[in-house]
Amino acid sequence: MEKKLTSFDPIVDSKAELLVLGSMPGRVSLEKGQYYGHKNNHFWEIVFTAVKEDDPGDYRKRIAVLKKNKIGLWDVVRSCYRDGSRDDKISDPEINDIRKATKKCRALKAIFFNGRKAEKLFREHFTDWKIDVQYLPSTSPLNTLSVKKKTKIWRKAFEKRAPYH
What we know:
single chain
């Protein structure tokens, strides 16, 4: 029998204006204890380009840059079963209490979904948001859009909601 997987705690604070929600960390990310820990995932490259920051490389420093730019990070799924890292393999998902986490984000302007699975699960469980929620193309290397195209879409979404230097 597969082992039940558990996601990470949210990275949010009262200053967060944007919240990026993924579905569930992949196997490598879970092993490392880091969001988007797989070297082939484009998340960090895309986000740092979108907010016009250099990627410090170190995970703790990456999180500090997210917070500096008022970006929170979490997953829709709290726990699930999954063989491998693909979203389409998620089964029996338990959903995180997104409302509870966002209550501390008094400045929250938008929630962005990193991929269709995160969006689908969120919309199935949460229906009455007064803030903007928007799908963004997955940063996974399995998404066939080019990194350049994904970055352009993410940058436009971020700039529409919060002024970055």
